[in-house]
Amino acid sequence: MSDALFQLVPEYGAGLVFLATFLSCLALPAPSSLIMLAAGAFVASGDFSGWSVVTAAFGGAVLGDQLGYWIGRKGGMPLWDAAARRPKTAGVMARAQASLHRQDILAVYFSRWLFSPLGPYVNLAGGATRMNWVRFTIADLAGEATWVGAYTGLGYGFASQIEELGDTLGNIVGALAAGLVTLLLGRALLRASREAHARKP
Amino acid sequence: MKNVLRTHPVLSLAFGLAATLTLFFVVRAVFFALYWADPAHALHPVEDWMTPRYIVHAYSLRPESVAETLEIAAGSSPRTPLAEIAEARGVPVETLILAIEALVAQRPAQ
Fold this sequence. Notes:
The structure holds two protein chains of two kinds. By secondary structure, chain A is mainly α. Chain A has helices spanning 2-24, 32-45, 50-75, 78-85, 87-102, 104-113, 119-128, 133-157, 162-199. In chain A, helix 1 packs across helix 2 and helix 2 crosses helix 8. The longest helix of chain A is centred in the C-terminal third of the chain and has 38 residues, at 162-199. Chain A starts with a helix and ends with a helix. Chain B is mainly α. In chain B, helix 3 crosses helix 4, helix 4 (63-70) runs antiparallel to helix 6 and helix 5 crosses helix 6 (93-106). In chain B, 24% of the residues are buried. Chain A binds chain B through residues 3-4, 6-7, 9-11, 13, 41-42, 44-48, 159-161, 163-165, 167-168, 171-172, 174-175, 178-179, 181-182, 185-186, 188-189, 192-193, 196-197, and chain B through 1, 3-4, 7-8, 11-12, 14-15, 18-19, 21-22, 24-26, 28-29, 32-33, 35-36, 41, 43-44, 47-49, 51, 53-54, 56-59, 77, 79-81, 83-84.
């Protein structure tokens, strides 16, 4: 499947790169990481100019993030609000919101690249919880610069092995994101069991 | 501890799913990293999505040899994948792939 994708990159160029990063930051299925790896490789080969690729990728990502944030801010998140109202989940949601608020810059920064599958949801949650827009944007710019730099850089440096890189990285990033969610859920579960234990006569 | 499975079934299930997913990705990551690190798999086979410049870069070939083999104008390096070049010439892309791989095999040992 990555074959078909890699073929689209030289054919549609920077426009495809822009669209891919834009859509993936809105939680729409777009294999932006693979596309950036390929784009980096085609910069190394001389088929693309580095500037056009980097600008397109970075611009698409930041625009997608901003849109996600404002959708969250204007539309709220019906599910989040509903969960925050239910008595059983209200506590968890309040703690999640507090954690997000305390670590807002780090959460935004690292969800751009290290835990990228979680990025779009951090955008929506950030907007819905009315995270300070300036802080959000600063962390977003830094994080997306890291993301674009890392993937196009890897594609550039390992141009002859982008398929292997794509496979390995995809699984590493998946493991990181799933691992983080596991840790957070595990912590919530532990807290719930301790509270239940404390309530025993 | 077992209590929490009963009092918080959804949370427990979500935790279980997340943990399984994590394990799944870790195993796959290790598998692919090991596969990739194996020297036998070091040279990636030529594929139909590669452009002439990409082939030159990835396999350290001379641009003139590649242009000649692909029968494209010397000095031109269109940003077109092999599949398209093959289609334009009316030949199956496997023919071009084999021709390039022959070029690669002829390179002096690195």
